[in-house]
Amino acid sequence: MNIRISxxxxxxxxxSRRDAEKLIGEKKIKINNKICIHPSHKVNNLDVIKFNNxxxxxxxxxxxxxxxxxxxxxxxxxxxxxxxxxxxxxxKNIGKLISVGRLDYMSEGLILLTNNGDYSRYLEHPSSxxxxxxxxxxxxxxxxxxxxxxxxxxxxxxxxxxxxxxAFEKKLKNYNWLIFxxxxxxxxxxxxxxxxFSWNIIKLIRISYGPYKLGKLKEGQFQKLKTxxx
Length: 230
Known about the structure:
Layout: E1 3-4, H1 5-11, H2 17-25, E2 29-31, E3 34-35, E4 42-43, E5 49-51, E6 54-55, E7 61-69, E8 98-100, E9 108-114, H3 117-124, E10 132-138, H4 144-152, E11 154-156, E12 159-161, E13 164-172, E14 175-182, H5 189-196, E15 201-209, E16 212-213, E17 222-229
Parallel strand pairs: 9-15
Antiparallel strand pairs: 1-4, 2-3, 2-5, 5-6, 7-9, 7-17, 8-9, 10-14, 10-15, 11-12, 13-14, 15-16
Helix pairs in contact: 1-2
């Protein structure tokens, strides 16, 4: 079966389809020893695909892992500022993996990784309607009216946050713990909402992503979850 080269690279876990277009533009992809010039080029299992002159093989199995991301780590493979990366926490012989979405520098908790770009895209895309759950600790007073405003849907600086549900979890000394559940995963969504209400975030921890749970995984630990046959 013929598929687009960008989809092939994504399925092989090399990168996302969007990043595949960048690699092709940088002339880093070869098909049968010829430089690929367009992401719409179609290939099949008889073609020899190379990235940086190394053969790319598409796996027939989707492997999923989970990682408990510590704070002060980024979810990118490269960083011009020299910050620590989540991929530094993985075994050296684990093979090529991509992260499912991201957590920002000061956020922690569950990060999923997979060898398959299409599965990553499915988990990330808003149309999949997959719920993410976060525990958020703040050191401010929380008004029930403010929680109701969030749950009804609010707009902040022209950005609409409709698919967000927040509930009070518990109070410990001067700290309030909230549970946020959301399905869109917009950029810095929780931080933007908390900033709108002048809530100071002490901790922001993702504890679940769809059917996947952080569980008792310790900070910095990495665990294989399951293999899905395609």
